[in-house]
Amino acid sequence: MNKFLLVEDSALVVKVINHLLKTSTDLAAEVATSKKQAIEMLRTAKRSEYVAAVVDLHLPDAPDGEVVDLTLKLGLPTIVLTGSLNEHTRDQMIDKPIVDYIVKESRFSYEYVLKLLRRLLKNKEIDVLVVDDSVTSRTYLKQLLNNQQLRVHEASDGTEAIALLQQDPNIQLLITDYHMPNMNGIELVKNIRQNTTFDDLVIIGISSHDTNGLSAQFIKNGANDFLTKPFSNEEFQCRVIHNLEALENIRKIKQAAHTDYLTNLPNRRYFQSKANEILDQHKSKPGICTLAIIDIDHFKRINDQYGHDAGDQVLIEFSDLIAQGFQRFTFARAGGEEFYLLLPGLKTAQAIKLIENFREMIEDHLILLEQDSLTITFSAGLAGFNGESLPELMRVADARLYSAKNSGRNQLCWED
Ligand SMILES: Nc1nc2c(ncn2[C@@H]2O[C@H](COP(=O)(O)OP(=O)(O)OP(=O)(O)O)[C@@H](O)[C@H]2O)c(=O)[nH]1
């Protein structure tokens, strides 16, 4: 559980936040109602115990943001709560290295606070690369990104940036200036987008206000977003967060498109693209990659005897066992009670041994249903890769699966 320090004198606000946290398994608030109490809590607790501080700007014993300054000085990421927002408060806030400020209006304001806290937790695992030849600009951007708890790397030109991206596949966001020696920002974006390894990288270009059309050029060449100088801290933070959220959503969609909804195993679509990639790498090495098609025996009887839900449970448990047993390899639920398994690096004899061990394990494995228990068996058809296409390899494995079924099931077939 991640704790955050909530410094707030309004009992109502504390109540709403605690109510929103009621079902939360990742966040908990420790409340101080005054500056005095906050100091006491910070003195006794280890500072690193708190993910962040959520601080009311106006407290009876700290009427002008003194606790905000205090938590910032202690290095705690600080989210500010304020009862109202006027020009003065906004100016006062955007100059401070806070995470964000929120006007206390409704429960949505507090939901936003929790969203920000969760964002901070995620940001701690996200690497960002800032590319700018000016040390001053880099330091400034680094500070803004650090306020959001992001891990920042720096490069002073495009060549260094590309080298860093190649070294560190964890970098998810790149922020680049336009004016740089050797390779300008747009050339850098072009270079990066030519390399499919960096397809998932989010790029924000920064263009000077006096250069017409640069923002559009950044986007046309593959940047996801841009900022025109001068920009406010607030705008910068918003763009960074929005782009990271968009990246996460795209990843979730991709993940869903590649995953079988029932078993969480990779699906046929994923298998086909991954298997094609693997076969491509093994074209010049015939005989050391094997495909197996695995099919649970008499599965219809399980549905008929125990019901469809029990059938689903069997599929889920069998899938978990495949995932555990073959984690080094590529596997998928092809559909129904059929599964694909590709074993690169293994000659057919080695693949037979591995799948035969799995078959023996499965026939002894007791599946516990709500009211009952049962065991299952499977049959498998295997085909060694010798340079043919994936559909052809599948056709061979499928014909052998058919033979295994016809020869009595609960067995492997690897020859015609
Ligand atoms: N519970 C459940 N059943 C499914 C699912 N997908 C397919 N099935 C059922 O799986 C059964 C497959 O039956 P068959 O193709 O006749 O094969 P089988 O009974 O396993 O027989 P053999 O393969 O010849 O050993 C059908 O009754 C499908 O309705 C699913 O997601 N959940």
Automatic annotation (TrEMBL):
It catalyses: 2 GTP = 3',3'-c-di-GMP + 2 diphosphate. GO terms for cellular component: plasma membrane. Its EC number is 2.7.7.65. It holds the Pfam family Response_reg. The modification 4-aspartylphosphate is found at D56, D177. Residues 3-119, 127-244 form the Response regulatory domain. The keyword Phosphoprotein applies. Residues 287-416 form the GGDEF domain. The keyword Transmembrane does not apply. One of its GO terms (biological process) is cell adhesion involved in single-species biofilm formation. InterPro entries: CheY-like_superfamily, Diguanylate_Cyclase, GGDEF_dom, Nucleotide_cyclase, Rev_trsase/Diguanyl_cyclase, Sig_transdc_resp-reg_receiver. Keywords: Phosphoprotein. It is an enzyme of class 2 (transferase). GO terms for molecular function: diguanylate cyclase activity. This is diguanylate cyclase. It comes from Oleiphilus messinensis.
